[in-house]
Structure formats: structure tokens, C-alpha cells
């Protein structure tokens, strides 16, 4: 049967008008294929900070090589902190990621979150200062990610920053799947420093379990709030942990039936134009959209993700 006939057949099957020229099983299979494509979860990788200095010095070159190798043909979005990359090493990272087809986004120059003591005008200047650092790289795009996903403690501040970003041609590089990989990395580094020869692979399965738990949570929330599985943007960080296990993380998603998509493809979805009416503003975009409805309070902890939730898990495992 040709591809031209298939949509018509599917429509007739769905309305109980299938032709007898094909079997019922064949007709149902034709209808199921596009439905499965629509409901299959998809995830893109977004990487924050580029704090290469936090990786032990003797492991930095191999960590950088492994991160790019893990991603392969998958195109990620790298949200860089200016003060971390305004140096030869950081510049080399941005050049290599740009050359590999990854996109570079703005994560402020100094990574001072809005819940700290920073004036609004200082925060805005920090964004523009970082643009001056990043704009020369071929991968740079005007997408901005708020430090700690904090977009303002009040509606007035939230709306001020939304207007500022729009005036300067930026869109919010929102996260749909938030997680605490930074905390797992922090614990791993401490163990490696305290115990020479510590087996880093002991963190592999707990880390994968954590990401999978968070992915399922936010995907189900997306289905409940939006009526569909949004193309997800996963927040992870440029760190030693992911240099070890990013490849395993991508393989895990594929083994669970999720598609891996490029970050720009994910960001092209209309959900990333949404501006939830919440204050304090921020967290995962899916979290904020759920919060906005007022219907999911029993499922929304605040903050959405933090090391305090993961500490008992790793303590129990002796990690």
C-alpha cells in the first residue's frame, strides 16, 4: 500500500469505515504508528555552567573528550558562565562544541542567582556582559537560562526580566526535566578526594536511577497538565560525573523507548513560548505550568529539585 493511501485508510479505520481490501490488523497497525510517534517521549540534552575548573586537573582533557564523544551526533545546548570560559581553556571548549554543531547559550557572566543579593540592574548587566564573551562563537544563540532556574521572587521582577530578555532578542532556555546531577557530582568528587582509587562506577546506577525517576515524574506531569508529552529539555552540568556516565544516560533513555532529539528541535515546540503566571517564578517549566493551574499542589515540592532530597538516598547507599 502506498504512502498516499495510508492517511485515508487510517482515517476510515478510526471512524469504523475500513475497506475490506486490507485486514483489520493491518489497518490498526497503520493507525497505531503515527499515534505511537506522537506519544513516545523525547528528550534533549542541555548542559549548564562549563565549570571545567571543578574537574580534577589530571582528568580535564579526557573529561572534555568523553563528553563530546558521548553526545555523538546529538546536538546539545551548552549554557555557559562567562567567568568560567573567559580564558584559553574555556574558549577552547566553546570552540570545540561549536565546531561539533552544539549551541551555546547565555547563563550570565558570574552565575549570581536572583535569590541572592543582586540588584535587578546588576543582573541585567551580567547577562549583557556574558553576551560580549559568547557572541563570537559560531554556536552562540540568544537563549538565556536563569541561574538555579530562579526567574524572580515577585511578579514585578519576573515581568521586568521577561521584558528585558525580549528587548535584547533572548528566549528563555527553559528546563522541563530538572534534576540534581550537581549534587551527585559533588559527592563523587568528595569521595575521590578522600579515598585514592575510589571506584567512580559505584555512582553510575544511583545516578541513572535518579535521572530516570525525575524524567518519569516530569513526563507524567506534562501529560497531565498539557495533555501530551512535551519534547523535554534535561538539565545536567558540565562535570566529571557526566563525563563518566552521559553515554550510559543516553543509552538508558533509548532502552526505555525514549527518543533523543537535538536541543534546538525541542526548543522549537510551542510550549517553550509559555510564560507561567507563578511567583516566585522559575523551576522546571512543566512544574511552573502545573503550579499555575492550582490543581497539582500535592505533587509539587519546592524547590522542585535539591540536594536535600538526594542526600538520604546516597547516605543509605554509603556513597
Would you mind describing this structure in some detail?
This protein has 13 helices and nine strands. It is α/β, with parallel strands linked by helices. It folds into two domains: 6-39, no CATH class; 42-316, Alpha-Beta Barrel (TIM Barrel). Strands 1, 2, 3, 4, 6, 7 and 8 form a seven-stranded parallel β-sheet that branches. Strands 5-9 form a two-stranded antiparallel sheet. It is globular and about 50 Å long. 38% of the residues are buried. Residues 1-20 and 29-37 have low confidence and may be disordered.
| Count of strand segments | 9
* Sheet with most strands: 7 strands, parallel
Level of helix content?
40-55%
CATH topology tier name of the largest domain: TIM Barrel
Radius of gyration over all CA atoms, rounded: 22 Å
The gross shape turns out to be: globular
- Which CATH class of the largest domain applies here? Alpha Beta
Strand content: 5-15%
Distance between the amino and carboxyl termini = 57 Å
Question: How many domain regions?
Answer: 2
CATH superfamily annotation of the largest domain:
Glycoside hydrolase/deacetylase
| CATH architecture call of the largest domain | Alpha-Beta Barrel
Element order, helices and strands?
HHEHEHHEHEEHEHHEHEHEHH
Summed up, the helix count is 13
Mean residue pLDDT: 91
Class inferred from helices and paired strands: alpha/beta
pLDDT < 50 runs, ≥5 residues: 1-20, 29-37
Amino acid at each position: 500500500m502506498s504512502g498516499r493511501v495510508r492517511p485515508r485508510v487510517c482515517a476510515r479505520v478510526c471512524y469504523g469505515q475500513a475497506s475490506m481490501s486490507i485486514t483489520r490488523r493491518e489497518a490498526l497497525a497503520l493507525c497505531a504508528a503515527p499515534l505511537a510517534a506522537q506519544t513516545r517521549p523525547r528528550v534533549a540534552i542541555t548542559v549548564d555552567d562549563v565549570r571545567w575548573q571543578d574537574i580534577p586537573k589530571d582528568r580535564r582533557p579526557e573529561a572534555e573528550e568523553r563528553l563530546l564523544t558521548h553526545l555523538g551526533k546529538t546536538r546539545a545546548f551548552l549554557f555557559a558562565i562567562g567567568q568560567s570560559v573567559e580564558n584559553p581553556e574555556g574558549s577552547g571548549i566553546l570552540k570545540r562544541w561549536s565546531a561539533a554543531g552544539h549551541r551555546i547559550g547565555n547563563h550570565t557572566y558570574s552565575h549570581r542567582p536572583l535569590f541572592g543579593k543582586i540588584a535587578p540592574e546588576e543582573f541585567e548587566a551580567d547577562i549583557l556582559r556574558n553576551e560580549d564573551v559568547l557572541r563570537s562563537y559560531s554556536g552562540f544563540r540568544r537563549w538565556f537560562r536563569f541561574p538555579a532556574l530562579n526567574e524572580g521572587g515577585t511578579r514585578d521582577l519576573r515581568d521586568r526580566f521577561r521584558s528585558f530578555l525580549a528587548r535584547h532578542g533572548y528566549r528563555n532556555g527553559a528546563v522541563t526535566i530538572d534534576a540534581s546531577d550537581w549534587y551527585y557530582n559533588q559527592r563523587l568528587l568528595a569521595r575521590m578526594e578522600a579515598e585514592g582509587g575510589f571506584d567512580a562506577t559505584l555512582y553510575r546506577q544511583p545516578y541513572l536511577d535518579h535521572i530516570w525517576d525525575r524524567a518519569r515524574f516530569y513526563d507524567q506531569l506534562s501529560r497531565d497538565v498539557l495533555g501530551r508529552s512535551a519534547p523535554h529539555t534535561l538539565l545536567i552540568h558540565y562535570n566529571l560525573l557526566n563525563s563518566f556516565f552521559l553515554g550510559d544516560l543516553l543509552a538508558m533513555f533509548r532502552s526505555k523507548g525514549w527518543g533523543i532529539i537535538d536541543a534546538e528541535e525541542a526548543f522549537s515546540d510551542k510550549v517553550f513560548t509559555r510564560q507561567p503566571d507563578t511567583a516566585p517564578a522559575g523551576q522546571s517549566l512543566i512544574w511552573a505550568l502545573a503550579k499555575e493551574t492550582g490543581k497539582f499542589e500535592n505533587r509539587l515540592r519546592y524547590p522542585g529539585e535539591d540536594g536535600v532530597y538526594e542526600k538520604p538516598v546516597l547516605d543509605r547507599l554509603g556513597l
